[in-house]
Amino acid sequence: MNTNNTATVKQLAYARRIEDSLNIQMPDSMDRYTISQFISSHQKEFLQKEQENNKLIEYRIKSELHISDIAREMGFSIIKKGHYLTLKEHDSVIIDTEKNCFWRNSKIGNGSSIGKGGSVIDFVVEFSSMNSTEAIRDLAQRLTGVQHSHAAFQKNVAVSRKAEKGNKKELILPQKASHMRNIFAYLTKNRYIDPEIVQEMVDRKFLYQDQRHNCVFVSRNSDQKPLFACLRGTNTFSRRFVGDLEGCDYNHCFFIDNKAHNLVVTESPIESLSYMALLRRNGQDYHMYDFLSLAGTGKYASVLHHYQEKEYGEIIIGTNNDSGGQESNKAIHKLCQNLPVKLIDQYPEQNDWNDKLKYVIGHGYRSNYIAESKDITDALEARLDAMMMSDQDSLKSECMNFSSKMLHETNLLPNNMDPYIQNYIQYIQKTYPGKSFKEVLAAEKGHDRIPGKQILHNYNRKQFFRVDLTQESALSL
Fold it and tell me: Which residues are within 8 A (CB) of 383 and not within 5 positions of it... i.e. 6 or more apart?
């Protein structure tokens, strides 16, 4: 065993997380053996601390973030109902402001509960397409690292409510960047939307890039005054970032007026663009439709607003193929039940229209493909590093267990991923005979190829590299 072999980037990153969390000093030596021993010695305590931190964050969310304020952010209209609050859009919902909980009389609750409900986290899950983990991550963004008091939070809420009684906040758009490179790369290469459609959206001032490299989707009135704007992050290595700007008109939402007689309703601007791309690929003119993106599932009142403006002959309801999308579909049907308009339900076969586009466009993605993230590519590269270690290396077993935990943290199973990792090892062994993992990583990145991405890409396509190994280049696994 060569104890002078330097630890991998992933091991060092994990060790630094332990150092920061437990407030302990990392070893001076950066060799793999020393760092592995450091991780092993403190991993149990670190994971316990992580669990405690997660519980603390969840407690703070439930105690500091009021359901009524989150409901407003989601575009709902709050109405007072006796000692409680309700929603204009869902009159069966009751919000208890003192206990900061809600229940929904139209749905069956658990046990003796009078209706389905719960905390602010449950509220977000109920009225969005997020699961509980995604809801906690989204709500946690509203909690700063500064330990502010509940009284201070109440003061901020009071100021916010006072402002709501005054004039509506003005919609202020973020400043434009000097170029559009990030949004074009993101929308065309990551989302597979036709460059011509993206360029049209830019030319018609529905889309631009801000100085933080976000996609800014803007909808305007006939005088070109912005009425609605939402952001979508373009960094594929970070957690999903979306958000509406303050001052949005939720009667308008993100609306593309093509002077058409029929309307297509989707949940997000990217899904509207994806729907356009699918029509275009099918030889149809997407300008024959207007498009309305709800920027979520709870803002469906905008459908009625735009019908009253234009009296469409057909409304295609293209919400997502999940529970949130189905609930939104039902709400739109109820909203329009007395209108002389033809309602057409059109769920994508996959979860949403961008997933459908990715499937149709021929990249081989299955309906249940795994979306790329930095956590996933890091876990795959840690597993790759461990599998490339010599069987004689006494640390291999420990590194295999460590990488297995990293995969499980990202909801991946080693048994599913290992065949693709092993195939990648065969590929790089033939391409870079005798090279170490670090040397391979440097060489691949020099060619703008990321091992973790390539392994995930093959897994999603359910294909392997074609490798014809000779006896001289065969790798002992």
Answer: 400, 403, 404, 406, 407, 414, 417, 418, 421
